[in-house]
Amino acid sequence: MLAVYACDPAQSRGRRFAQTPAPTRTEFQRDRDRIVHSSAFRRLVYKTQVFLNHEGDLFRTRLTHSLEVAQLGRSIARSLALNEDLVEAIALAHDLGHTPFGHAGQDALNECMAVFGGFEHNLQSLRVVDRLEERYPQFDGLNLSFETREGILKHCSRAHAEQLERGEPGGVGQRFLAQTQPSLEAQLCNLADEIAYNAHDIDDGVRSGLITLEQLADIALFEDFRRQVVAGYPHLQGQTQDRRLLYETIRRMLSAQVYDVIAATSAALERAGPRSVYEVRQLPPLLQFGEDMRVKSQALKQFLLHQLYRHPRVLDTTGRAKQMVRFLFDVYLARPHEMQSRFLARSDAARMAQDPDRAAARVVADYIAGMTDRFAGREFDRLSKLQLLPVQPGGFI
Ligand code: MG
Question: Where along the chain do its domains lie?
């Protein structure tokens, strides 16, 4: 039932540590199951998407966001005869490397790590599944198949790609050096991610009161469907308390984008005619919106960036989140014994590394990146009470 250009689990490029195949599951089903059972996956429930986790119970978290990406991705994958299991595995894992406090946390940690090689959440997601999960006696990480790891590493700087390439020649870093594409399943997860957050951030933004339906009147992708809904159900208009207008508009918006991707991608596939995933990787991106939808989606993205993600109230909470991450980083770097024992052990081991400062900072970054919002908050409270004295920039006694 799979198209010739889909990823076939029987043709997988394999795992870094060879394992006997499972009796009843394909390699990609097995990857998905490993991800769902990982500790990093469970932490997603207490990690911020846009609104801080404690601000309200109904806002998206990284977990519910990832589930929505998986739902949209699978739905499109089935229509295009792509591998649904692989799409699901990538979607559920794509945000595993996110820090607490959303993008604010990631920016702060990247600043802290600037002199130690930086911090990228996509690369961190790969690090989680490759190294940081400790669940198997034989190896670190989850030992996922190449195709899942390829999809998880959505972006990567050239410097990091070179580093990956040295450790794994011809592996997941290579495409960033060769400037080729990943599988269609991986391309699909990127677009499904965008469709998901564009839609749910409208919902959460309106729920929070930070954006209004009036502001959205300028955004074609939303407004065209809102008018359609009002025309069909005039009683919904003007009832600001009734959320059905919003939900029905978002539902139609989502469907339209899904059908658009299926149509535009089918046409692109027909034109390019790839006969295997290997050919897909050599071609330009094929998983796409039609031109009209691409422009509309871009306009909505810009709207959300300016009206929601940079809303003073959001920026205010992100400012505080950044302070907390910077403080935690400085404290753990100077006082590694404040970290949990397995990270302290890794920090001790870092002293033997070629570049001990860089290695020790990476342990701290891994520790902080893995935290949920509330654990980071508790640690901040605990450590602030110790009344540590800054001795130098980046150090505490
Ligand atoms: Mg995402």
Answer: 26-178, 184-313
Residues 167-199 pLDDT 10s: 999 999 999 999 999 999 999 999 999 999 999
Tell me, in angstroms, the distance from the centre of ligand 1 to residue 339's CA: 28
Distances (CA, A) of 265 to 102, 114, 191, 390: 31, 39, 11, 56
Give me ligand 1 centre to Cα 2, in Å.
26
Q: How far is the CA of 43 from the centre of ligand 1 (A)?
A: 15
SS3 283: coil
Q: Is the pLDDT of residue 240 over 90?
A: no
6: left (phi over 0), alpha (psi -120 to 50) or beta: beta
pLDDT, tens digit (0-9, with 9 covering 90-100), for 115-161:
999 999 999 999 999 999 999 999 999 999 999 999 999 999 999 99
CA of 228 to the centre of ligand 1 (A): 29
Cβ neighbour number for residue 389 with a 10 Å cutoff: 8
**8-26: pLDDT as tens digits:** 999 999 999 999 999 999 9
Mean pLDDT of the chain: 93
Higher local confidence (pLDDT), 26 or 396: 26
Rounded Cα–Cα distance for residues 182 and 210 (Å): 37
In the reported structure, the alpha carbon of residue 349 is separated from the centroid of ligand 1 by a whole-number distance in angstroms of 33
* CA of residue 94 to ligand 1 center, whole Å: 6
Distance CA 396, CA 25 (A): 51
According to CATH, the topology of domain 184-313 is: Hypothetical protein af1432 (1.10.3210)
Give 218 Cα–ligand 1 centroid separation in angstroms: 25
The topology under which CATH files domain 26-178 is Hypothetical protein af1432 (1.10.3210)
**Ligand 1 centroid to residue 92 C-alpha, Å:** 9
Alpha carbon of 69 to ligand 1 centroid (Å): 7
Same fold, 26-178 and 184-313: yes
